[in-house]
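G., before I forget:
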Amino acid sequence: MPELLTVTDLRVTLNTARGQADALRGVSFSMARGDTLGLIGESGCGKSITALALMGLLPEGAKVSGSIVFDGQPMTTLAEAQLCRIRGNRIGMVFQEPMTALNPLHTVARQIGESLRLHKGLSGAAARAEALRLLERVRLPQAAQRLDAHPHQLSGGQRQRVVIAIALACGPDLLVADEPTTALDVTIQREVLDLIAELVREDGMGLLLISHDLGVMADTVQRMLVMYGGTVVESGPTAAIFARLAHPYSRGLFAARPRLGLARGTRLATIPGRVPELIDLPPGCPFADRCQLVIDECRRAPPPPQIVSAGHEVRCIRWDQA
Amino acid sequence: MSDALLQAVDLHKHYRLPREQLLAARPLVQALAGVSFTLRRGRSLGIVGESGSGKSTLARLVMALEAPTAGQVLFDGQDLNRLAPGALRRARAGFQMVFQDPYGSLDPRRRVLQTVAEPLAVLHGASRAEQRERAAEALDAVGLRSADLDKYPHEFSGGQRQRIAIARALITRPRLIVADEPVSALDVSVQAQVLNLMQDLQDRFEVTYLFISHDLAVVDLVCDEVIVLQQGRIVEQGHPDQLFHQPQHPYTQRLLAAVPGNAGRIAPT
């Protein structure tokens, strides 16, 4: 099966107040149509920058090297006009905050219809009919009456359904969802995740899901990449990663989660220290300063990938010591 | 019960919405409809529920930031809404609040010292030297250094900012801290540090927590008792072990079923 998306040695350098910071330091992965892939990590690990790089939406002055090939086209060298033909058409996007993703001044029908008119050349009436079909597909209650609603008249979960309808409008091959449920209540979160999973299955799209929540990942994606300091520190099938948390950071993240059933007053395991700023990252393993298994060799050079099992890789030279 | 620190007695809160039609009456929202509970000294009570369930309204009533439509908030036996303004201001030393967003709750133009010591300055008119000393103590309690007093909020990470917010709440040596989603905006590893800190502070200073969260696992960890709110009413109340293992109310069951990773795909360690 031909790959839908292949990212090879992606590096991104951003301009910050303190100078140039390497936000991504060699990220590689690939996915086929129908694959569900998760990017997990904490603030500043590079998961959102990866998504922005895919869509050519990096901040001004960002330097990109490496390659992103989407359906045979090298995205990093495309002109803006060509990118515009892909964004919102072949690649759909769902963002974290549905209130800011939607335009407060435009009706739901107009916002869903926009990409249909733009990319598919639909007339106003045809776009409106299609918008209704999409709203029904994302199971927005009373879809027909809501076509002329403005975002403020909808609840958070309903708004996120509208955002998903916009992302799906042109029948994309890849859906990029950046923390799509973080702003939602837990029961609504479950409904929205189930909806995304169902739509992805029905349409055979690829799903790139970005989240900080291990539980969301476990429920939603087949494969995941654990990111830290602009690198993928562990990658593999979701079940294999949870069964054998090979990287010390993955283990730390897992242990730090409060879980139902812990005794009252239990102290959570913490990862000592704090996430280094991108500009201060050490030359060797980015996690070295917080790792309990660290040896001198870890600090010398970025650790090469080690094979844990088929398809499960970890960038830690000491992973089998734990 | 003599060791009750905080009592809510049949609290009701109504809000009037803007008129929908010119001549129609303004619609009424029942944010809280008959909420009662007792929180004992040194214990932690968790409030869970979804957006619109009345969690934050409850926090505002307990903090006496708003008056209930009906019912009473008794702090240490005193009805907060019957106190004269001056007496209420003095009573506020006994209950402080920590908010969700450590980026929004600290004034970016003030040094940490001003922010942390402000409750002291307002409540007691403490001298500069005393303010600085007490602020340094409070920072020390949350694991920051006294050198941090002269810095500005932007120089700190999210977790450190939440520590500053907790230091500000601690400085009046309150008996009750109302924490409204105190770790929801934090990364997982930082969240663990702040939760551990809050528990350590409880052991050291015997503070009582009213802990509001949408995260059932966080509440299970920190609280001795849990109240589940739905549309302004308590639908279930009990010890977390019992409530989360054998939820009786369908709404509690639904909340539990929706917790990500709770379907057993993440093996417990």
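Residues 73 and 244 of chain A are 36 Å apart (CA to CA). The radius of gyration of chain A is 21 Å.

More on Monday.
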